[in-house]
Amino acid sequence: MLEADGLKKSFGNIVATDDVSVQFGKEDGEMVFIVGPNGAGKSTLVNLLTGLLEPDEGAVTLDGQDITTMRADQRVHEGLVRSFQVVKVFEEMTVRENIRTALLIKRKKTGGLGPRAIWEGLFSLDDEHEAIERTIDDLVEQFRLDDVEEAIAEELPHGDRKLLDVAMSFALDPNYLLLDEPTSGVSAQETDYVIETIVEVSESQNVTTVTIEHDMDLVKNHADRVIALHQGSVHGEGPPTMLETDQELRRLLLGVEE
Amino acid sequence: MTPGISREDGQLKIRIMKGMELTVRETLGLVAGLVILFNLPTITTLAGDLPIRQRPIYRGIVFGLAAVGLNLLLRHSELVSFGHAAFFGTGAYTVAVLVSDYQVKSATVLLVAAIVAATLMAALIGYFTLPHTGLYFALITLAFGQLLFSIVKGQRALGGTDGISVRTGEAGVTILEQFPTLFGIQLTGQEVPNTILLWFTLVVVIISMLVMYRIVKSPFGRALDAIGQERTRARFLGLPVKRYVWAAFIISGIYGGIGGGLFALYFRSVAPGETLQVFVSGDILYMAILGGFGTLTGPLIGGIVLETLANIANEVVFTGPAGETQMGRFITGAVLLLIVFVFPKGIVGSLKPGGRVFEGAKTLKNDPTVAGPWFRQFGQVTVEAAKRSVKNVRYLLFGVK
């Protein structure tokens, strides 16, 4: 269970999140979507949960452990993984090399946290080569990147770059995956394809996936649960039908008066 | 895996050690380079009046080694250090102080001390650069380099601007007996000890290069690549980025320290202007770019080429209305511009597949007639560049209108 307990964060006079308490995660994983108008605090919430930002008040707990002050890279090894709104991949590496890098970091030897780990990472060549290559094969297939596996990341079409970004997150074997607008900037044709792939892989691996999303049709089709934020606070949470029934929410999200 | 020969995709590969395979071309280049370097004393004697001298080449080797270290940060973590002289100077001064103040004479002990001192200095300076990248990283390294330069220059105990001699100053022995010893041989700067020291240096350089090869090919090296290309992502894949950068910074400093220690042993005197000044840091960076910072051996070769070139260029004197001017800096500066604009991958990088010289030679071999258009294009680009610089100078002098 990933829990935010009374998270508060301000930037100067602007309160980005104000006393936000939410919980994510079931035994077999769930698809949670975070919705809300611009400036609602969606990205700030994800940043607080994953350690990019430190909260002014409140706590973050992961499976019962308080991780509020834990370093971001350590949280990853505890199973808490995220992606960014802007694609962040290693631009000069191929698709396979990108995923390989993620897998090598996941290994204790390179990703470990003490000086000893750096020492071991320094002098062990890729001895688990075979196993790593097979994992790469699987991920490339799951994310339908087979055709472009040897292409340099910066030359990929945008949709494939998004998929590569998510594939790298899945390479880390997460329990909780936080995706900040995985469909932003993706063309209308590619959007379904990207989100369906994410849902498919999340379900097959029982990952709890928390996605920030603006496309309400996608949310309705794929969400197990929706959390709506407004002006830094939780406006409401519930099943995706909430998007139809909550008139106040509809007005906030779509500017629709009915 | 043992050394051997294998064939991959129809290309012959020569395996030196586990994970290290070279093409035939690379092996030939390596062997030729080592033969030349090990026979340098003979070659310089045979060269007679030709401008091949052992001193500048040795300078090139030791500063080049510092550039190899700098390149770990530059190539892999994409961090530009403008203060690498700090580590070179730390190594050089450690040797000089231990000899002159503490009568330590064993060259190997001195070199180990230089490594330890450089490690500590790099750990200290590196710690303060950790949160920064890009311009701020460059400025902080520059500032620390200048700080160290000023401190050393102002210390009477360290000889101020004149520096210190690398000899014990003991009473009752001749000057020649006061120098450090290597395997029982007094490093007096005469022909035989210099040759021995050169060979020892080359062995140290070979070992350092092999270690660097392992480092950049290891998961640690890959992690540095990842940090250089997308730092935030590397962090959120679970990499303790700062620790890795710190480790890389320290390794990088150690190479500078070894270079500085060897410098002190060979030249037998250490002064701040030659080892710590900001221009020295600039030269170290220049060597990496000249030789090709995308390659392992490039910075070392860049060092040798730059120092030889500077040695020749310094003999060119321009006599103008203001008197005589040494043209060394002017010529090396012009070469740097040429490299940046025409061969951005540097000497070694251009000779490799994908490099300008390599690909150009291949095209020329297939179709010699392309040479004509190339010259024309080069002419056009030069004219265009000249026009643009005239325009820029005009803007600078007279403003935009």
What is the general shape of chain B? globular
Which structural class matches the secondary elements of chain B?
mainly alpha
Q: Kindly identify the CATH topology of chain A.
A: Rossmann fold
Strand order of the largest sheet of chain B: 1-2-3
Q: Shape of chain A, please?
A: globular
CATH architecture of the largest domain in chain B: Orthogonal Bundle
Q: What structural class results from the helix and strand content of chain A?
A: alpha/beta
Strand order of the largest sheet of chain A: 6-7-8-3-9-10
- Work out the count of structural domains of chain A: 1
Distance between termini of chain A?
38 Å
Unreliable spans of chain A are none
How would a textbook summarize the main sheet of chain A?
A: 6 strands, mixed
Q: How would you describe this structure to a colleague?
A:
The complex is a heterodimer of chains A (258) and B (401). With 258 residues, chain A is of the alpha/beta class. Chain A contains eleven helices and ten strands. Chain A has helices at 42-50, 72-77, 95-106, 108-111, 115-123, 129-142, 158-171, 188-204, 216-222, 242-245, 247-254; strands at 2-11, 14-24, 31-35, 57-62, 65-66, 80-82, 176-180, 208-212, 225-230, 233-238. Chain A has a six-stranded mixed beta sheet, with helices on both faces. Chain A has a four-stranded antiparallel beta sheet with strand order 2-1-4-5, with helices on one face. In chain A, β7, α8 and β8 form a beta-alpha-beta unit. The longest helix of chain A has 17 residues, at 188-204. Chain B is mainly α. Chain B is 68% helix and 8% strand. Chain B contains 17 helices and nine strands. Chain B has helices at residues 24-38, 40-47, 54-76, 85-102, 107-129, 134-154, 191-217, 219-229, 231-236, 241-267, 272-275, 278-291, 298-313, 328-342, 346-351, 356-366, 371-398, and strands spanning 4-8, 11-17, 20-23, 164-165, 181-182, 185-186, 269-270, 317-320, 323-326. In chain B, a hairpin with a 2-residue loop joins β2 and β3. Chain B is globular, with a radius of gyration of 23 Å. The A-B interface holds A 50, 52, 71-74, 76-77, 81-82, 84, 88-93, 101-102, 104-107, 109-111, 113, 115, 118, 121-126, 168, 172 and B 18-19, 214-215, 217-220, 222-223, 225-226, 229-230, 232-241, 243-244, 247.
